[in-house]
Design a protein that fits this description.
The protein is α/β, with parallel strands linked by helices. It has a single domain, classed as Rossmann fold. The protein contains 8 helices and 7 strands; from the N terminus they run E-H-E-H-E-H-E-H-E-H-E-H-H-H-E. It has a 7-stranded parallel β-sheet, with helices on both faces. Strand 4, helix 4 and strand 5 form a beta-alpha-beta unit. It is globular. The structure holds NADPH dihydro-nicotinamide-adenine-dinucleotide phosphate and 2-hydroxyethylsulfonic acid. The site of NADPH dihydro-nicotinamide-adenine-dinucleotide phosphate (NDP) has 30 residues, from helix 1, helix 4 and helix 6.
Length: 250
Amino acid sequence: MLVFITGATSGIGKSTAKKFAQNGYDLIITGRRQERLTEFKKQLEADYKIKVTDLCFDVRQVAEVESAIKSLSEENKKIDILINNAGLAAGLSSIQEGELSHWERMIDTNIKGLLYTTRIISNLMIKNGKGHIINIGSVAGKEVYANGNVYCATKHAVDALNKGMRIDLLAHNIKVTAINPGMVETEFSIVRFDGDEERAKKVYMGLQALKPEDIAETIFWVANRPAHVNINDIIIMPTAQASATNVNRK
Ligand code: NDP
Ligand code: 8X3
């Protein structure tokens, strides 16, 4: 079995790659940071005796996405599971004050990047007669919170695309699942606050946030249901979080 993961250099994508590797799956790991990909590939191959292919590309650049996937061997084009995970929040500002560059980065990554990857890989799955696409959405795709405007809009788009692709791919024996996490402690908030680690730490202060491993477990479980079973949609939160904004901090 072969799993293609976007954004495997950090956080949820990295933990998910490790979880599948531990269970003997071959992997295609992707991201923009080549050094991290090279190191991670070496480590996974040594620890788990699986085959790992690394592809360094920016999901926002359609030409890069196409040429990276085209460069795969015929064997590596038989992708069983696509995990559309690469994504980010940039900024936390009101609609009247938000930075255009932040908005463009989120829209280009979370929506357009996911679309570019899905279009090509879904065609490979159709050729193969089966597949499973797992989209990483968010609680921000189910609710909207103050100053979350554009990030929430991109994750609402993922929610809609998840439903839309399930309908379009129905005739092709391709499962489509969304995993929608609440707060997960990764590099997410550091990226959101443009590298401000102190501000990022405060997001998770006083509560036990989810760990990326918790999401990896869930993704692995979803991917291992019997052939006739599809999990459409999961919302997974820390026990200390009831909604996007209701958090029990000690
Ligand atoms: P991280 O910042 O730890 O990881 C993000 C990953 O996405 C990195 O591997 C990064 O790789 C990759 N990525 C970002 N932009 C691009 C790009 N333009 N091209 C290719 N790869 C890219 O965050 P998380 O693990 O938390 O985030 C993973 C997903 O989970 C995102 O879609 C996020 O929205 C979602 N999510 C996160 C939550 C959280 O609380 N952490 C909650 C709900 C959803 P590189 O920089 O090397 O390109
Ligand atoms: C990430 C979770 O609450 O910051 O998608 O939007 S949140």
